[in-house]
Amino acid sequence: MRQISSKLNMYVKSVSVINNNIERLMLHIIIFSFSAIVFCYVLFLGNMVRNIVVRQSLETNARALTNEVRNLEVVYLSMSSDVDLAFSYSIGFKEVKANFTTRKALGLNSNESFGNLKIVKNDI
User: Is 47 helix (H, G, I), strand (E, B) or coil?
Assistant: First the structure.
């Protein structure tokens, strides 16, 4: 009976050691997984916050540029209403008549011949 008890005691200790190692390994895996998840969460959260801040600053710049364009359009419209024919003559502009150039047609007429060939108009 003692032999059986000692053998059982030996098996129980070895099973305890194996379970302890497996439990320790599982604990390490769980801790590593949890820390990886926390790291990814912090990384993604930081990127989101940074993107929000950058977007807000870009929106502010876009609003400033829109206001600047609006002001320049108002200045342009006020200046363009002052321009007339007398003002343009006074700063040196002259009125120019339009001259368009023309050229002969590249194709041959139906009455003309080209070497030994005679071009005949198709009646169809």
Answer: helix
Phi, psi of 116 (to 5 degrees): -85, -5
- What's the whole-model pTM score? 0.46
- Cα–Cα distances (Å) from 58 to 49, 51, 62, 81, 110, in that order, read 14, 10, 6, 35, 68
CA atoms within 13 A on the CB side of 90: 6
Q: What is the pLDDT of residues 28-69, one digit of tens each?
A: 999 999 999 999 999 999 999 999 999 999 999 999 999 999
Rg (CA), the chain: 46
Evaluate whether 119 touches 108 at the Cβ level (below 8 Å).
Answer: yes
